[in-house]
Design goal:
Radius of gyration: 21 Å
Strand order of the largest sheet: 4-5-15-10-11-14
Largest sheet: 6 strands, mixed
Oligomer: single chain
Bound molecules: pyridoxal-5'-phosphate
Distance between the termini: 39 Å
Helix content: 40-55%
Number of strands: 16
Structural class: alpha/beta
Length: about 500
């Protein structure tokens, strides 16, 4: 299988090359030339397999230039009991009749990003070796909070790779910030950017596209890659858990072979929900993909109107990992729904860049609306959902997953569609203790406490344990203190690499 650019002006490459490069040279995203299919018997056979075996089967369909041994090594290094605190890796937990939460946060950093970032470093070093790479790889990451820590954990002390993470100075939770600035490892750099996530992401994109910068690295035996969800090596592991969830529902007798399900995904950069879309295209019976946003609801509007317009105020919310106005992975969806019309995609992306908006044609809009349903939740609604689910089901939601549950309720109200549903749960509630505690304990009883004391109060109140990875992080030494304006991000990278 070959990967080409969603914008059409770059040569097609095998998976190893696409993963090593991260982003296509024309600024587009690497996309597969076709979507492999998975049949009903295979899905049934998955029922008896461990997560890692399911992952091997699915990755081998996409990474056809990898040997079975290479894939097995990558998968086993990632999805094991040393890194994940639940044997099923991505367990399904019933919330109410016919509705399941898929917990995607049992990895080392307690957010769903671990599902991909535990394996990406192995895919990347394998890709580098396969392509005869001798340069050192410098991974650049812009994070809205969770990617940064997950990437740091995945890449720390990996030979032949260095990693630089940029996060928006005031756009992440105290716990997220603390997780990053206490990061150990001999090949890691963390810096705060004066700006929001889009500033950080644009800064990284500009560095990638800067020929002079690339030349400087090349002359020092280095080249850049990306661990953001624009990297195909992050997307493909995410497809696995949707297939896995379907296999679990089948094996558990909750659905019969061929029965359709709905999938709800709290969405920011559109990576996670895009993986569910690819799973659907592979033949997993998925009826509706429900795209849940917070009040940065650029995607809700896009799904409803066909107009993508980022010219609006950026709002900080209690679901900061979804505070995004430019959802990069939407580009891959557009490539699929236009029947691989890279010229169209390139034009829309140019409009987005130059005018801050684009509008797709009716046919594309209808195709999207046939699969996707979009909705959003305000912070107040999100908190009310956390409280009501806690009171009614005894299940503790994080703020992002709560956006998903709220939008799912809106979807039910609008459609009356009671198809069996999976709601992707993207973070452990203790990553966002303050907002979760405010929702169920009330702000009055938390006044004067910092986020760490609040986590303890939440633990006492709910009896749900703080995960080991988050316990006592306030006591770890701070190792990274760099803060920079968005124009200086390139400088920060060069200084860290000690090249002029
Ligand atoms: C990254 C993230 C999201 C958004 O996922 P996308 O793939 O960017 O759409 C949602 N929730 C949490 C907790 C996240 O970390």
């Amino acid at each position: 299988m070959m990967y080409s650019s969603s914008r059409g002006a770059a040569e097609a490459v095998p998976a190893a090359q696409a993963i090593k490069m991260g982003i296509a040279p024309d600024g587009g995203l690497f996309v597969p030339d076709h979507i492999p299919q998975i049949d009903s018997d295979t899905l049934t056979s998955f029922g008896k397999m461990f997560y890692a075996e399911r992952a091997e089967r699915i990755l081998s369909l996409y990474l056809q230039d990898f040997s079975p041994g290479e894939i097995a090594r990558c998968v086993r290094a990632a999805y094991n009991s040393g890194s994940f605190d639940d044997a099923s890796i991505a367990p399904l937990v019933p919330l109410e009749a016919g509705v399941f939460v898929q917990e995607l946060w049992h990895g080392p950093t307690c957010a769903f990003k671990d599902m991909a970032l535990q394996i990406l470093p192995h895919l990347m070093t394998t890709s580098a070796a396969k392509t005869g790479e001798t340069d050192e790889i410098v991974v650049l990451v812009a994070t809205s909070g969770d990617t940064g820590k997950a990437a740091l954990e995945g890449f720390k002390d990996v030979d032949g790779i260095r990693i630089v993470v940029f996060y928006p100075q005031d756009g992440v939770s105290e716990v997220q910030k603390r997780q990053m600035v206490t990061q150990t490892g001999k090949n890691v750099m963390v810096a705060a950017v004066e700006g929001n996530f889009d500033d950080a992401q644009n800064g990284v994109k500009q560095i990638f596209a800067d020929p002079e910068f690339n030349g400087k690295l090349a002359s020092h035996g280095m080249k850049m890659s990306s661990a953001n969800s624009i990297n195909w090596g992050r997307l493909v592991p995410q497809i696995v858990y949707y297939v896995s969830a379907y296999a679990d529902l089948l094996a558990g007798g909750h659905i019969s072979p061929g029965e359709e399900i709905n999938v709800v995904v709290p969405t920011g950069n559109f990576g996670n929900i895009l993986a569910a879309y690819y799973a659907r295209k592979m033949g997993i019976p998925i009826h509706r993909l429900i795209c849940a946003s917070n009040i940065n609801y650029v995607l809700t509007e896009f799904i409803n109107s066909g107009i993508y317009d980022r010219r609006r105020d950026f709002a900080r919310t209690i679901s900061p990992s979804m505070d995004i106005l430019i959802s990069s992975n939407l580009e891959r969806l557009l490539f699929e729904v236009t029947g691989h019309d890279a010229g169209k995609v390139a034009n829309w992306m140019r409009d987005l860049q130059t005018q801050g908006r684009y509008e797709v044609d009716d046919e594309v809009k209808q195709q999207i609306q046939a699969v996707f349903w979009g909705g959003y939740a305000s912070d107040e609604e999100t908190k009310a959902t956390i409280r009501s689910v806690w009171e009614n089901s005894g299940y503790l939601l994080d703020t992002h997953t709560a956006v998903g549950v709220n939008v799912y309720q809106k979807y039910l109200g609008a459609s009356g569609d009671h198809t069996v549903t999976i709601i992707a749960s993207t973070a452990n509630p203790y990553k966002f203790s303050q907002s979760v505690a405010e929702a169920i304990i009330g702000s009055d009883r938390l006044s004067g406490m910092d986020e760490f004391a609040i986590a303890q109060a939440l633990e006492e109140y709910t009896g749900k344990p703080i995960p080991a990875a988050l316990r006592d992080i306030e006591k770890r030494p701070i190792l990274h203190r760099t803060v920079c304006p968005k124009q200086a991000m390139g400088r920060v990278v060069l200084d860290y690499l000690q090249i002029g």
